[in-house]
Amino acid sequence: MFLNDTLALWSAVSTPPLLATVAAEYSPIILSGVLLTLVTIFIASKIGSEVAKQLDFPPVLGELVAGVIVGVSALHLVIFPEGGLAATDSLLMTALQALNQLSPEGIETVFESQSEVISVLAELGVIILLFEIGLESDLRQLKEVGIQAIVVACVGVAAPFAAGTAGLMLVFHVAAIPAIFAGAALTATSIGITSKVLSELGQLKSKEGQIIVGAAVIDDVLGIIVLAVVASLAKTGEIDVTNVIYLIVSATVFLIGSILLGGFFNKAFTSIVAKLKTRGNIIIPAFIFAFFMAFLGNAIHLEAILGAFAAGLVLDESDARDELDELIKPIADLLVPIFFVTVGARADLGVLNPTVPENRAGLLIAVFLVVVAVIGKLVTGWAVFGIPGVNRWAIGVGMIPRGEVGLVFAGIGAASGILDKPLQVSIIIMVILTTFVAPPFLRVAFGESVETAPPIESTSE
Amino acid sequence: MFLNDTLALWSAVSTPPLLATVAAEYSPIILSGVLLTLVTIFIASKIGSEVAKQLDFPPVLGELVAGVIVGVSALHLVIFPEGGLAATDSLLMTALQALNQLSPEGIETVFESQSEVISVLAELGVIILLFEIGLESDLRQLKEVGIQAIVVACVGVAAPFAAGTAGLMLVFHVAAIPAIFAGAALTATSIGITSKVLSELGQLKSKEGQIIVGAAVIDDVLGIIVLAVVASLAKTGEIDVTNVIYLIVSATVFLIGSILLGGFFNKAFTSIVAKLKTRGNIIIPAFIFAFFMAFLGNAIHLEAILGAFAAGLVLDESDARDELDELIKPIADLLVPIFFVTVGARADLGVLNPTVPENRAGLLIAVFLVVVAVIGKLVTGWAVFGIPGVNRWAIGVGMIPRGEVGLVFAGIGAASGILDKPLQVSIIIMVILTTFVAPPFLRVAFGESVETAPPIESTSE
């Protein structure tokens, strides 16, 4: 309603109609749909994250599960026109239709347009999330934990990727592209979840904690490169070695280049921010940079999130960084849940119903992925060398939670159809389970003593 | 690119296509378009607001003028498919088409979808702006300045509305609906601009300053009721007294009801916020409330912004208010400029070219509107009674700047066609000029002494 509300006035006033699109006629109702969907998403995300918090699980998992509940698997409040779903399948759209006395064609137009808007908002949410993760990542911390973190990260990417892809192809006879995609989804450790859990255990500053966080940071970068490689690979429909090399090189050049040019960008950013005297003097230049890098990441055939992550890494070094951290939080708090809830909402858990014979393969795959995901990260503890008495179990367990980047893969799978539904849902289950088991396992791995340690305040989920 | 990027993978993978819409095929390019347009809007808004600040004008005017420059009047970077404009008219779309080798039909689909997304973002921006204005408005302050502010506000609404509407109908032979709409656009004083200018003059806490701010707050409410009444009026195409009464009653009941129930909402909000322990514990409940009230405002045939404003007024009383004020700022800083820049971008200043004979009426109207707008507010100073020695000139001049709500009217006019183009642009020129003249006039009205007064820090534009 509002600007667009009055677009409906065309019919009432005696000026010639100037609208080019049929969709614009329904704009007020599209905005109504967007507002109702956002309210639903926000309520779901808050209930989900609070319940998860009460149960001592990461809040982000609660948002995902809440998304499953309001989505296509259960309540049918937040659904998308994929998989042949229509407006009549959505309770919100049915309510809007009754409220505005719309024709069946009219509500379909509204449904498709509002879904497009919610999808773009979710994409802006994940762009902002990766920008924030980039800001939270610390290049200098990496250099201190150095070679240990790099080895742990590389083993933690290679082992589950190789075992997962090979197992899916050899045991489950999955085609190469979806097998590689699912294998890639096993790679990235969640820096947010990992650092949050460590801080809750008071282990963030321990030797093991530093290696885990350092490796999780590298993992994040590797995971995004793997994501870009795999997603671009899938575009060609086959494994094109030249393309893989091009992508690895361009991803590396893009990231390293951004970081090397970071000094220049930082000086420019800091001096621009210092000169600006109106509201938004920090946040608007930061988002100009983040959104432009996101656009650029796409333009060179990588991903928008890679650009946003690079932008975050670069501005991480900026003098205005602390202020930017504070300012980006409410924006991320508002937009990021749209991404997680819609990822959950798109996941059709109905395919895991074991009474349907064709679903049983999906359940087997989920069990296989969870086992590979856990063992593939546990072994990283034994890759650590040169530190006597290091708690190898703690490091291995600390690398287990997947979270954001794993969900990003699942989200891409859900939206694109690279992964069939059982495989998509298996990945989501893998992400949920690995993240669920990490907190209690970490508590055990670090020993009983930490249970009485006071939690260190952390701002990250 | 990202979630939707991979929607384009449909063609590359061997699963059956599940997409319901043609638009989804172009989703990655739609996101590219949205990112590029947002970057353009942000750059324009920042340059505009900084230049305005340098020249001692309110930053919001700079954003509007910058919008005019990037919009349909000049650079053709940010345009909308109204008035028969196509993707080929947009420089950004032409660049996207070349970059992605799109067909002419493809780029039109992208143009229409990304315009829809930008329009919704602009609408969310103005919803958030009015929510913020509601939060900034202070019911208790109103009670202190009391009857004086109410009289000034009522005279300041009635005088320019009556003179403007009557003049347009009698002198310029404008039809009733657009004349009433344009007259209504003359009513609302900009609380943001007014309080900012007063604070810069160090007069925010003076007797005159308190009356001006109090009256501006009431004006804001009256202006929004007038907006709702006029917009709803226009839907029926004629003046329906029953409808007007219904709207005045429902607007009043909605606002007063929200405020009376405010105590309940406040307690509920405060206790919910206190119980929440995850990120977004304040901002998400606040936006659930604001967006739901916006939806409700529309559902009872008022406006979304009225609901958002009421939500702001209610939460203004909340214990969490100071924190909420801080958290909403970066969100508003990011989304509100999208509204102002697109309002400017939609305004086709070409119709004011005096060498085109049919444009001359528009210029005459603009001169008339400016004169009525200034005189209609100046007289309010003489409506003040019972305060000996009050600076009547200062109060009258302080009520002159229009700003937000005036631009909202212009935006509705631009989007809806209730106002023909000369009338739309005349309103924008009226808003620009009244806001431009206020700061220097106020300085003169308060006398030379205030020029040396230290400015009080104000967070409002």
UniProtKB/TrEMBL annotation, chains A, B:
Residues 47-442 form the Cation/H+ exchanger transmembrane domain. The chain crosses the membrane at residues 30-48, 60-80, 117-135, 147-170, 176-199, 211-233, 245-265, 286-315, 361-387, 393-415, 427-446. Belongs to the monovalent cation:proton antiporter 2 (CPA2) transporter (TC 2.A.37) family. It holds the Pfam family Na_H_Exchanger. It comes from Chamaesiphon minutus (strain ATCC 27169 / PCC 6605). It comes from the Bacteria. The lineage of its organism: Bacteria, Bacillati, Cyanobacteriota, Cyanophyceae, Gomontiellales. The keyword rRNA-binding does not apply. PANTHER family: NAPA-TYPE SODIUM/HYDROGEN ANTIPORTER, SODIUM ION_PROTON EXCHANGER (EUROFUNG). This is Kef-type K+ transport system, membrane component. InterPro entries: Cation/H_exchanger_TM, Na+/solute_symporter_sf. It is found in: Membrane.
